[in-house]
Amino acid sequence: MHRSLSALLLALIISAALPAAACTSMIVSASASASGRPMIWKHRDTGAESNFLHRVERPGEIGYVGLFNGGDTLCLDEAWMGMNDAGFAIINTVAYNLPPNSPQWIDREGYVMAQALATCRSVDDFACLLDSLPRPMGVCTNFGVIDADGNGAYFETDDYKYVRYDLKDAREGVLIRTNYAYSGTPDEGMGYIRHQNVVDLLAPQISTGSLTPQSFTETVSRTLYNSLTGECPTDTDAEWTIDQDFVPRYSSTSSIVVEGLLPGEDPSRQIMWANISYPPCCHVVAVTIDDVPAAVDATAADGTARAPLALEALELKELVFPIRRGSGKHYINLDAYRTINAAQATISADAYSTHR
Known about the structure:
The longest helix has 20 residues, at 334-353. By secondary structure, the protein is α+β, with helices and mostly antiparallel strands. It has helices at residues 3-17, 109-119, 123-132, 192-208, 213-219, 308-320, 334-353, and strands at 24-28, 39-45, 51-56, 64-69, 82-84, 89-94, 141-146, 152-157, 162-166, 174-177, 240-242, 252-259, 271-275, 285-287, 331-333.
C-alpha cells in the first residue's frame, strides 16, 4: 500500500477509535488575565456522559475539590481536574503523538491527578511527584498545573519521561494544549484545528491581556466555529450542521475554569467556574474550595453518583442531537442549539454577576 494512503487509513482508524478523547485546554498567566489572577481551563471530552464535583478530605492529605465521572463510586480515586486547599490546580489532555503506554499499565492519568491534588502545593511539587512515580507511569498526556504563587506549566508526559513548558516562558502569557504534545512526533496526534479555533476566538483578548473565565466557558465552549473553514454555522439560517472539529462536540462533558489567586491571597479565594455537562446545554456554577453546590455534587456511594445539573443538561442535549439511528449523533439541530445555548448562557451571566 502507498505510504500516504497507509498514513491516511491509520489516521482514520485512530479518529474512529478515539472520538471522545478530544479535550481542549489553556493556562493563563496573571499578565494575560483581566483580573490579574492566573487561570487554568479544561474543556473535557470523554466517553463518560456526565461529571460531578466533590470535596475530598482525607487524614494527612490536602483537601481538594475534584471533577469525577458520573457513575463513579465515592471512593474518588480518579480525578479529571481540580483545585486544592493550597491553591494548586491541575488538568490534563491526552496527547496522541507521545510514545504509547505499555499495554500492562495504561490510563492512569486520573489516579495521578487525584494524588497530585492530595499532595502538591506547587508546580515544582508536581514535578517531584512525576519524578517519584514508578515506571511505566501509565500516562500519555499533557498535564497542566498552576499554583498559589502564580506559576504554571504543562508537563508533556509519557510512561517514562516528561517535558516541562513553563508559563513564565510563554510569549503572550498563555499556553494552549489539545490532543498533541509539542514535544511529540510532529503532525501526529489530534486537535490541531481545535487549537486554532481557540487562538482565533480569543486573539483580541490574548493580545490585550484581557482574558476572563467567560472567555472560555461562554465563548470558546459555546461556539460552533471551525478555524479551517472559517465558518460558524449558528451565524447562518441552516437547520443542521455536521459535528466536526468544533470545541463543543457530542463527546464534550464539561468546561471548567479555575481562577487562581492574587499575590498573598488566601487559597479560599479560588473560584472554579464549572459547567459540568455538554456546555451549550448547561450553565456555569461558581464553586469554591469550601462550597460545592448541590446541583453539581453527587452523594450516592453505590456507583450511580450523578449531579442533578448534569442530568438536566443531558435531557436538553437530546434535543440538540435528536437523531438516534445510524450516524445521527454526528448531526446538530441548530434551531435547538441556538435556543438552548442562549438560555443557558443567560443563566451563566447571572452566576458570574453575583460573584467576585
